[in-house]
Structures are given as structure tokens and as C-alpha cells.
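Troubleshooting entry. Yesterday's outputs looked truncated, so today I'm pasting the complete records for two proteins to confirm everything comes through intact. If either block looks cut off, that's the bug. Protein one:
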Amino acid sequence: MNKYLTIFALFLSVSIFADATDNEIFLEQSGDNLALTIDQVGYGNKFCGTIISGACATDMEITGSNITFNLDQIGNSNQLFGPITLDSSNIDMVFTGDSNIFDWNIGYTGSADSLDLDLAVTGDSNEWDFDLGYNQSAESFDYDLTLTGGTNIFTTLVDSDSVKWEWDITGDGNDINTHQKDSDQSLVVEYAGDDGDIDILQSSGTCPQGVTTCSGVIDLDVTSDDAVITINQKDTND
């Protein structure tokens, strides 16, 4: 049985709980001060904007400020897709399971300032593609990633000023790719696992008006055999 949910919310507290196979959530929301809680438990659940071949197809448009968004997906082969635009908001996500797909962007069509994202992942063979900012305004991003599991692929592009990103990754065979663009970037990494492949590109971009230096800081603590780590730091936004 498939379940389909559509929501339009303004100044609301919303909780959604789905427990079955192939649940699908369509969500279009506009407004401030929303508290949104979603739990999806089971196999093949989807929280959409797009997907198409595996069903759903669009929605998952969240727009506003002062939003608290809590999402738990528990199970295997679950999917999270879609664009959102938020300011001054907190996002807390927990994913437990294998072969899940996360393809998400924040701030593609509008500003995404003052965000706090906590992401906890436990499982193997997951694929994650996360983008913040693009060419829109994005400042003050605090991102914490805790990953436990192996053979996961994480690809992240952060186009934002004043970023603090902390990784805590445990597991073998993980492939981590990150590009941090714009001024004042801080990346703190704790990595424990063998056969990892880590690629870090940190480009400081254009300094804000009146600022003559734009910092980029990378702090790594790595415990690993047979790891491949590549770091590039540049004073450009390429």
C-alpha cells in the first residue's frame, strides 16, 4: 500500500508518522515559525521533491524562517529529495539503514542564512548529495555530521560565508567529497576507518567589503590504513 500526504502549513506545528512499505510524503509549505516532525519507518520510504522513476515526483518545497525541522528515516532503501529555502532555522536529521539515497539542496532560489544542521547516519552503502547556497545569499552555517558505517558516498557543496562543519566518521571504505566556497571556512574532521577516500576543496572566494583576509581552516584527526586524502586550499572561488 502506498500512502500519499500533501501539506500546506503556515505558523503550524506538524507531526507526521509513517510505518509501512513505500510510504511517500509530498509537502509544499510556505511560512515562518513552523515546527515540523517527520518519522518514516520501514523499507522504501520517500520524502519528495522529484524522484520520478521510483514514483513521488515533485513537491517537498519548504520556505520560511525560524523553522524547526526534525526528520527520522529508519530502514533500508529510503529516499529524500528536494529543494528548500530557509533562514534562521534548525534542522535535525537521523537516518538508520542501508542503501538510502539523500539528494537535497538548501537555498537554490533564495537566501539560506543562519542555519544549524545536525545529521546522524548509521548504515552502509548510502549515497548523499547535499548543496547549500549556490549563488544566493548564504551566511553562518553550522553543520555537524556523525556517520557510522562503511562504503558510504558523501558529496557536499557549501557556498556560504562563515561556515563551521564538523565530521565524526567511523567505518571502512567511505568516499567523502566536499567543496567549501566563500570566506571564513572551518572544517574539523575525526575519521576512523580503513580504505577511505577523502577529497577536500576549500576556496575562500571574495572577501566581504572591508575585509582583507578570508580564512580557511582544516583540522584533521585520521586513524586509518590505506586511506587516500587529497586537500586543496585556494584564494579563489573556483
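Protein two, checking that the full record survives here as well:
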Amino acid sequence: MLLGLVGKPSAGKSTFFKACTLANAAVAAYPFTTIKPNRGIGYVKIKCIDEEFNVQCNPREGYCLNHWRFVPVQILDVAGLVPGAHQGKGLGNQFLDDLRQADAFLHVVDLSGTSDSEGKPTENHDVRKDISFLEEELDLWFLGIMEKVWRSFSRKTSSEKVPLHEAIVKQFSGLNIKEKEVKEAILKSGLNAGKVDRWNREDLLRFVKLLRKLSKPSIIIANKCDHPKAEENLKIIKERFPDLIIIPCSAEAELVLREASKEKLIEYIPGEDHFEIINEAKLNEKQLKALKFIDEKVLKVYGSSGVQNVLNKVLFDLLHYIAVFPAGAHKLADSKGNILPDCFLVPNGTTALEFAYRIHSDLGNNFVKAINAKTKQVVGKDYILKNRDGIEIVT
């Protein structure tokens, strides 16, 4: 699972990345602070099943706080994109190319309106333009990839009677696009799949727009939600883009909270609407003031900083994944005594047999049955897994 952070320069992408990962990313208030992509690990948050068994888990990857399990996902932070990026402006082609394998895009938007489309300081910038131009750049990026080969591609597909969806999956193989996404895009476009040699540029653009939205869906991170103009701008973009998932967020607030928690100055669970100061003696007046501001202007207003909400929304609502635990029906620990060491993120609709193969090919090849660790019931290979299932594979 790879999530790609996109947005114009100075929107707060690197701050969001650092808040998610606590990785050493360069953060500064000027364009193109990031040139080479940063790759790190963020975490989605689910209620761990260990509490239902009255035990404490020992994760092999990720961590668990108060029975909240944090499961790792990869995050890629690329340099800011500007209008004309698909044509190479601001090294846009290079940065877009970095995003080829992303499963979804996290689009960071500067809700304060204090930076223009190129990330330069300004006042009262129309935030709607930042969403529109980036959506357009991503669509034109897809179009450019297809247009390079379209004439020969369409003729070959028509003459050799190759199914269009198969040919397109092959053509877009470097973009991690699935066959079902191509089929759905063809169907929704209303275009004649049997006469692709007659598609014009407008037809092709209509098709790739649908394909991009299906294969690399976006969520809008309305960053800097604590700015005085934020509430007004949030309302404006929600009205303009009713079909997009828009999450108010303060990446800077989350970064402060996570770093303070790491230093054991506060107790804080990512995604919560509160924190507790546990070492006030080590906090100076400026730090105490900052924490009070975060509490009053972010957490009490929005219910969280938004960072954890973004990751969970992307995985569970946008990409429709579920979390499943390999768990013995009578023994929750592995051979080393680690309790519930693993948690896998799998697409909704995954069967018990598919899950067995996801863990290890030998488990899939030698599958006999599965057992639901919570109910102790035996289930077959076609059992559709549910979120937070504990499943033992019997071979």
C-alpha cells in the first residue's frame, strides 16, 4: 500500500509527511523545499482485537496504544506540483513519474489562502483553484501517457481484436492499474469499446479522467485549518467540490503533539480529541501556549488534528480495505510467544483462501479450512472476511 502526497509548493505536504512518520523531512515556508521524494511509514488506526481476548498484543510491525492498533502504510512525499506540471513545468514530469505506483493521492491544500498556485506568498488566494488545477494536471498526465501511443495502439487493438481492457491494462502497467478499474471506466464513459480507432482527443480525455479517479482516487487535506480564513475557505471548497472527501487538518498541530508525546511531555494517542500534559515542569511558556492553542483552536473545534482521520479515511472509506488478524482459535501467540503479532490490510471482499495466500503461498496451496478465532466456527475457503476478523488457517 502506497499513498502519494501531492499538492502545490508550500501547502504543507512535508509537514503532513513528518507528522505522519516523524521522519526527518525538510520543512520550510518556500517553494520546492522537497526535490527528491521522501518515503516513510504512516499508520492507520483500528481497535485491536486483543481487548476482546483480555490480552495485550505484541505487534511485529506498527504499535499498539491502549488497545488501538496502528498498522503501517507507506507514504511518498513528492515535490510541489504547479500549473503546467504535466508539460514539465517545475520539473513536474519527474515528480509525477514518482507517483506511478501510488494507490491513492493525498492532496494537501493550503486552507489559509496565503500562497498562490506556485506556492508564493500572497493574500486571499482562491483555494478552489488549487484543487481544480491539480485534478486537471493529474488527468492530463494520464492523457499524455496514453496519447503517446494512441494511434498505433488503437489500430492494433481494432485489427487484432484484442479486448480493450486487456490492452489498456498492459499499456498502463507501470501505473498499477487493475483490469476491473479499466472495465468500469469504459462502461461509465459510454464510449464504444469496439471502435477505439474512432475515439478523438475529447473521448480519450473523458476516458482517462474516469480511469484516473477510479485507479488513483484522491482525498483533500484541507491543511492549516487553524488559520483565521480557514473556516470560510473550507465552506467554499466543500460547496464547490461536493463529491470529494475533504478533511480539515492541521499538520503542524499534529507534528507538535507527536513530538511532545515522543519526548514524554504529554500523553497523546493520534486521532484523539485531547491530550494530557504529564511533565509541565519541562515545558516553557511558549510551548505551553502552543499546546493551549492546539487544544482550543484545533482539537476542540474539529475533534482532532485531522492527520489520523485522513489516513483512516483513505484506507477504509476511499480504497475500501479492511484489517484482518492471523489468529489461532485456541492460541493467539506465535512460536516466539508474541501475541497477535500481525495485522494485514486487505481489500474488502477478500476470501479466507485469498488471505491464506496473502500470508504465505504455502498456506494457500495447502489450505484445508479456516477458523474464526472469535466464534471458533469453521469457515470455508470462500468465506468473505470482515473487518477486525481473527482467522486461523488450517493446512
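Both blocks look complete. Sanity check on protein two: The first helix runs from residue 13 to 21.
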